[in-house]
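May I ask you for just one protein sequence along with its C-alpha cells in two labelled lines?

_____
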Amino acid sequence: MIKIAWHPLYAHPLPEGHRFPMLKYELIPEQLLHEGTITPQNLFSPEPVSEDIILLAHQKAYWEQLRDLTLPAKEQRRIGFPLNAQLVERELRITQGTIDAAHFAIKNGIAFNVAGGTHHAGSNWGEGFCLLNDQAITANYLLNKNLANRILIIDLDVHQGNGTAEIFRNEARVFTFSMHGDKNFPFRKEISSLDVPLDDGVKDDAYLSVLNVNLKRAFESAKPDFVFYLAGVDVLSTDKLGKLALSKTACKERDRIVLQACKDKNLPLQVSMGGGYSIDIRDIVDAHCNTYRLAFDLFE
C-alpha cells in the first residue's frame, strides 16, 4: 500500500500579513479521497522528529535558535515570516513524515509526504519559507542507519535546491540534481552535483528533452540505491513566481519520467511536494494530485 504523510498542522496558517498558499495541504488529500484514488488507510500522521536526527543535517546553534524561538529578526526575515511554536512543530512533523515515508518507500517502492521539499534550508540557515530540510535530514538518517549507501536527490522545483546542495557539498554518497530557473530565487546559488539552469519561458518539449538527458546523467553518476524526488509544481505556466511555461500535461509527464525510471530500476522513492504558487488553487492541487495518480497507476 502506498503511504502518504499528512498532519493537520501542515495546513497551519502563517501569521497575519505573511500568508502562504497552505490551503493545498488540506485540499490535496481531500481531492484524492473524494475521487477514490486513496482511502484513509493510505494516510498516516507523523510525530515530531527528534533533535538528534535534526542534527544529522543542521548545526546545533541554528536548531536551538529555532527551538527556543530566538532566531535573530534578520534571519527570520530571510525565512519569510516570524517564528512561532506551531510553525516549528509543523516543520518537525513534516521532517518525521519524510523519514517515515522513506521507510515505507523501502518496503513498498514509493511513499509521499503531502508537505516537505523544504530545500532552501541549509545547515545553519532557513530561507524561502523553509526551516528544516526534510529530505536532507532523511538522506543523512538513511546513511546513518545503513538503510542506503548511495542516494540521489532529484529536485525539479522551479527554484534551486540551494540548502540541499550546501548540506551535501562534501558528501560523496549523496548526489544532488537540481533543474531550475536560472534567474529565479535564490539569487545566490549553491553548487549541486548536477545543476541544470533554465531560461525564463521554457516550454513543454524543451523542458522534457532537457530532463530526459540530465536525469539519465544523474542516475549514471549517482548509482543510487535510494531516490528522493522534490515534485514542485511551480514550473507551471500559471505559476506567479515560476517564470517557466509548462502545461499541466507536461508537468504530469515530468513526474511520469521520474517515477517510471525509479520503478524500472527497482529503486525506493520518497516524494515531497515542494512549491506551487498559481493564482487559481485548483491548478496547484490538480497538478500535485497528478503525481499521486501516476504513482497509484505505476506502483499499485
